[in-house]
Design brief:
Elements: H1 4-11, H2 18-23, E1 42-53, E2 58-66, E3 77-78, E4 81-83, H3 90-102, E5 109-113, E6 117-119, E7 124-132, E8 146-153, E9 163-169, E10 175-183, E11 186-188, H4 190-208
Parallel strand pairs: 1-7
Antiparallel strand pairs: 1-2, 1-4, 2-3, 2-8, 5-7, 6-7, 9-10, 10-11
Length: 210
Amino acid sequence: MITLDLVRKALSLPTFDIEAAQARLAPFTRSFVRGDRPGAPKLAAVLILLYPSGDPPDLTFALMRRNEYPGAHSGQISLPGGSAEPGETWPQAAIRETCEEFGVCDGVEILGALTPIYVPPSDFEIHPIVGALAERPTFQPNPREVAHIIEVPVRDLIREDAVGYEDRTLPDGRTLRVPYFDLCGNQVWGATAIMLSEFEGRLRAAIASV
């Protein structure tokens, strides 16, 4: 059973191969840090929000499917989050964005953080935060941003068949084999999958060390 104590242990492992865990769900081999591009990246934070759900209660987290709009991330499945405001810490930014998108604003206990990743297409550096609630929240999704919320048992991340692959055709005609998490019948890929892959890897390592 995955508990908050196990999550805390997973986030504080003294040794862990972060690069290998992230690369497992990356669509191609690349660095996850920004290179020598001019200027500075835009900064953002996202939240893996954990809470008990069901009977008996099972540790769960929430994803969202974004609304369709003109832009790079239209219709994608993601964690709640967005751009950090000046002076905010990463947890503050992640909780504020979760409040704006999910209507969940209070009572989040910060458990730790995953490794920031750099997303070249949007020039964003994303800081993933892990937090927890004592009870399942009452979601009030923002209809301008959220098409619907997807509640995922954490144990689904470590299923043996959780990862799939799909061939996708790029604008230049090349075909790319893209890995994704199959979570509650939804394909979760890209930056969100890369961050969840580190989380999943850490959970597996913590379970193996028990």
